[in-house]
Amino acid sequence: MQQYLLFSPEVAAARSAGIPIVALESTIISHGMPYPQNVETAREVEQIIRDGGAVPATIAVIGGKICIGLSNDQLELLGSAPHALKVSRRDLPFVVSTGALGATTVAATMICAALAGIDVFVTGGIGGVHRGAETSFDISADLQELARTNVAVVCAGVKSILDIGLTLEYLETHGVPVISVGQPGFPAFFTRESGFKADFQMDSAEQQAAFIHTKRALGLQGGVVLANPVPEKDAMPLAEIDAITSHALEEARLQGIMGKQVTPFLLSRIKELTEGRSLATNIALVKHNAVVGAKLAVALHGRRPL
Ligand code: PSU
Ligand code: MN
What is the distance between the alpha carbons of residues 150 and 177, in angstroms, rounded to a whole number? Predict the structure, then answer.
């Protein structure tokens, strides 16, 4: 397997020096935000992780290799290339074997992080059970990955483009713990509250690391969701985001958007309909998650090896 992995010099050095590493995904760069804010944000998020005492490893598939850590040029390529494919578990062997340019989702980034021995991953929002999944069967592969792959995912919860209640039910069925940070409520990405509670609240990185370490020690396979609410000052008004989400969902339905296009379509329509205000919120919450993720990686590193 290792023949498919290519570590950047910075990540390779961190591995030999025993410095904690935090994985970052690339779908958020290629399909989650517009250029050039996507590349700027990716760089800033990496720097926040460094400032927190860890080393960032942004993950993507380039030239048939799973790249663990990207150069500035590679970040630029992923942020600007219109042909970057959105790569989930199913797509990973395709992009690796063909040499196509691949931006990894939460699911694929978890797989690659686990292959590289990285146990903390920071992103914005995870995929989930889509509204109307009882007829469309549209449930993100991110949830199955959380059920099986040992990586902790720091996010700002789940967007209300999804059915948040069903997403939490699905995670419970598959034994994925959902831990909130700083409040009991499970956040809804753009807003701090979703109306649902997380399973456990753990505010300190030490507590979170002890939980993850114990889960691992008990042989319980699978990830953990760490749900970190967007800072109050950056959150969007609930009524506004609800109205815009309903509008975008209706457009997707009318245009017959299906499969892997659904999430990128909704994300980009929400951004357009809020005239970019949702983008500012999105950027702020990812940066906030990077602070939490770096602390967790440092705390978890102190507990190794299992
Ligand atoms: N949700 C967001 N922002 C994102 C995504 C989801 O708020 O960028 C991306 C992530 O890469 C996630 C993917 O893993 O979309 C889920 O896509 P799908 O629903 O097709 O599994
Ligand atoms: Mn889907």
Answer: 12
The pLDDT tens digits of the residues spanning 200-237 come to 999 999 999 999 999 999 999 999 999 999 999 999 99
CA distance 10 to 32: 25
Which of 11, 8, 58 is closest to 286 using CA atoms? 58
- Per residue in 228-283, pLDDT (tens digit) is 999 999 999 999 999 999 999 999 999 999 999 999 999 889 989 987 889 999 99
Dihedral (CA of 258, 259, 264, 270) sign? positive
In CATH terms, the fold of domain 2-301 is Indigoidine synthase fold (3.40.1790)
Residues marked active site are found at 25, 159
- Distance in angstroms (rounded) separating the CA atoms of residues 172 and 153: 16
Residue 90 Cα to ligand 2 midpoint, Å, equals 12
Q: Would you list the domain boundaries of the chain?
A: 2-301
Ligand closest to Cα of 136 equals: 2
